[in-house]
Design brief:
This protein is mostly helical. The chain is built from 13 helices and no strands. The chain has helices at residues 3-28, 35-56, 60-72, 74-99, 103-124, 131-151, 156-173, 179-203, 214-238, 243-249, 252-264, 271-289, 293-309. Helix 1 (3-28) runs antiparallel to helix 9 (214-238).
């Protein structure tokens, strides 16, 4: 891999995570709108924006061919439908969490996400873990347990965000299509539902779109651009850089969200939350180091020794 490709890829991926980290500011501008209506507009306008992108990038023919191919490949078609539903659920939970004063817990969800992805890989894809990755799971579990005990309730927002985004990544592994075409197909699956819900709101006179202000209308329509652009940048970056570098860069987004929650939107950050985050951060440090050559070789040696004793 060329150094210029790696540098370009890191910039693309870094920009995508930077945008994701600052997106709570965008959703806060829409906190007067119901989270479900924001989601419906986000899905619908993402689809419209992606159709425009396909037209100007001359990928319309590829989109049509891919769509026909899915009709013959049921496995990929089901994976696409599942990915669409899962990511829609993830978007809804995140928007609701941000606009309901749970930005800190939302950031925790995306810190936990890499560990959930490993767990899903182990259970579904039968991937093997190293001793360091097992250790990171234990530390993360302790962090979640501390937050649960201190709050008296299970941190369902964080876990739901981690599970949905991790499951989305797993479903995407089964779909091998162009990034722009894939995003268009994903929004195509759920756009009819979004459109029906928007029409339902219009009929019952409970819609915010076209009734509140021009600024609100533009923000709702712009949600499609705000959704699609970082996803497209991420796809470009992921193709050019090693997975280990991508793993480090992904912590930009939840870190920015955490900073926004504590210092900008004045969410209360308790000592127990800090302790829980310290366990999660320690787990992520061990997980990230386990990807380095030295520790990955030691982990492989441990796995062989463990297999030999069985």
């Amino acid at each position: 891999m060329k150094k210029t490709d790696t540098k370009t890829g890191a910039i693309y991926a870094g920009v995508s995570y930077f945008i994701w980290g600052l997106l709570p500011i965008y959703w806060k501008f829409l906190d007067q709108v119901n989270a479900m209506e924001i989601l419906a507009n986000r899905i619908f306008w993402s689809f419209i924006f992606m159709l425009i992108i396909l037209f100007f990038t001359k990928k319309w023919g590829l989109f049509v061919r891919t769509l026909k191919g899915f009709a013959q490949n049921k496995k990929q078609m089901y994976a696409l439908a599942l990915a669409s539903i899962i990511i829609s659920g993830n978007w809804f939970i995140y928007i609701w969490a941000v606009n309901s004063g749970h930005m800190i817990e939302a950031s925790l969800g995306y810190y936990i996400n890499p560990l959930i992805s490993i767990l899903l890989g182990m259970i579904v894809l039968k991937e093997k873990l190293t001793i360091y990755q097992y250790g990171s799971f234990i530390l993360a579990a302790v962090g979640v347990l501390i937050m649960t005990i201190s709050h008296g309730t299970f941190p369902w927002i964080a876990i739901s965000l981690a599970l949905t985004f991790g499951s989305y990544g797993l479903a995407k592994k089964l779909i091998n299509v162009d990034s722009a075409v894939g995003l268009t197909l994903e929004t195509l699956v759920v756009s009819p539902i979004a459109a029906i819900y928007m029409i339902f709101l219009f009929v019952h006179g409970s819609n915010s779109f076209l009734t509140m202000s021009v600024g609100t209308d533009l923000l709702l329509m712009g949600a499609g651009v705000a959704t699609a652009v970082p996803l497209l940048y991420f796809a470009k970056g992921a193709q050019k850089i090693p997975l280990s570098l991508l793993g480090f860069l992904q912590y930009i987004a939840p870190t920015l969200t955490l900073i926004l929650g504590v210092f900008v939107y004045q969410e209360h950050f308790t000592k127990s939350q800090l302790l829980a985050f310290l366990f999660i951060w320690s787990a992520l440090t061990i997980y990230s180091l386990s990807k380095t050559k030295l520790l990955s070789e030691k982990g492989l040696k441990w796995r062989k020794e463990k297999r030999a004793t069985l």
